[in-house]
From TrEMBL:
UniProt-recorded name of the protein: Ubiquitin-like domain-containing protein
Entry keywords, A to Z: Chaperone
Origin organism lineage: Eukaryota, Viridiplantae, Streptophyta, Embryophyta, Tracheophyta
InterPro entries assigned: BAG_chaperone_regulator (IPR039773), BAG_dom_sf (IPR036533), BAG_domain (IPR003103), Ubiquitin-like_dom (IPR000626), Ubiquitin-like_domsf (IPR029071)
Organism from which the protein derives: Salix brachista
Domain of life: Eukaryota
Amino acid sequence: MMKKTRSHLCGKMSSSSTTNTTSSTPRREHEDETEWERRPGGMLVQKRNEKDNGVPALLNVRLRVLYGVLRYRISVNSQATFGEVKKVLMGETGLQVGEQKIIYRERERGNEYLDRCGVKDRSKLILMEDPTSIERRYIEMRKNARIEAANEAISCVSMEIDKLAEQVYAIEKSILNGVKIPEIQITTLIEMLMRQAIKLDNISGEGDVSARKLLQGKRVQQCVETLDVLKISNPGVNKPPAVATAWETFGPPPTTARWEFFN
C-alpha cells in the first residue's frame, strides 16, 4: 500500500510541476507575438483578441512616471495604449510625442495596450527623451540664437542710421535756406554712414534678417547720395578755378663763340 501511494503521489507531483512550468511561461514571449491594427485616426496600436472584446472597461489606473530627477503622477484608463500615455505626458513635460521614449519592464514601449503588458495601478514607468530630438533641439537653439543676435545687431545699426538721417535732413534744410555748411561736416557725415554700411555687411543671416539688412543698406545709400548732391549745391563754396597748364619757355639757343685774332 505504501509503495503504491508513493508512486501515485509522485505522479501527481510530476504532473503538477509540468502544469506549473507550462503556465509560468514568460510574458515576454507572449508580448513578442503582438499583432497590430490601425485606428481610423491613423494611429498604429496593438490588436486585441476576440477574448478581450468581452472584457468590461476597467477603471483608471494611477501611474508613476520617472523623468530624470522629476516625478509625475498621471491617471489613465487601464485599456489605454502607451501612445495615449505619451499624449498625457506631453502636457505635463512639454515633450512632443515623437520625442518621448517610455520604458516599462526594461523594454521600450510603442502603442501596446497597458493591460496587455501587465501595467497595474501604481505601476512605474520611465520616461526618456529621444537623443535625436535633443540634438535637433540643440541645433534649433543655436540657429535661433544666431538669428536673435543678427536682429539685435541690425536694430543697433538702424538706430545709428536714424540719428545720422536726422543730421542729413538738417543739413539739407539749411542749404536750401541758403546757409553755408562747412564741407568737413558733410564729409564726416558721409564717413559715419559708410561705417554703418560696413557693419551691415558683417552681419550674416537669411530670410527676414537678409531683408532687414537690405532695407537699412538702401537707407544708407540714399543718405550718402543726398549728401553728395548737397556738397555741390552748398552755397558759398569756392569752386577750384580752371588752371591752364604753364609751359616753361626757353630763350634762343646760344650762338657760337667768336674768336679774336691778334697780330
